[in-house]
Specification:
Hypothetical Protein Yqey, Chain: A, domain1, 7 helices
């Protein structure tokens, strides 16, 4: 069963259970997937779905932070609940240790020596962990590795 099929099945299941929060989040996700499919004019792979899921999760995490700073805990809680729902569809995330080890390996093989070489390292590292790691975390690890 593909990720899109699982999302469709879960929408139906949530509708039957009258779980409006899950229905709302999954319909929004389905809309984002449809928009992406139309924009690219190709059928979506599970990798494409994972990329869109990561973008949606990142957007909601950022929104929750803004709401917390704006003293709106009820809206922050709603965004965090959506992150929780969406995260259930993401593939298992790589650990920080795995990312650090691979970053050290890529830095050594590319001969990267400073922040100017960050693009080379990030390109290879994100290719390796596409859909399995948050870009911000990877970026921070690469910066740390290149500034030592």
């Amino acid at each position: 069963m593909s990720l899109i099929e699982k999302i469709d099945a879960d929408i139906i299941e949530a509708m039957k259970a009258k779980n409006e929060a899950v229905v709302s989040v999954l319909r929004m996700l389905k809309s984002s997937l449809t928009n992406y499919r139309i924009a690219t004019q190709k059928e979506l792979t599970d990798e494409d779905v994972a990329t869109i899921l990561q973008k949606e999760v990142k957007t909601r995490k950022e929104s929750a932070q803004v709401y917390k700073k704006g003293n709106r805990p009820e809206l922050a809680a709603k965004e965090e609940k959506e992150v929780e729902i969406l995260s259930g569809y993401l593939p298992e995330q790589a650990s920080e240790e795995e990312i650090r080890a691979k970053a050290k390996e890529i830095i050594a093989t590319t001969g990267a020596s400073g922040i100017a070489d960050m693009g080379k390292v990030m390109g290879q590292l994100m290719g390796e962990f596409k859909g399995k790691a948050d870009g911000t975390l990877v970026s921070n690890i690469v910066k740390e590795g290149l500034t030592k």
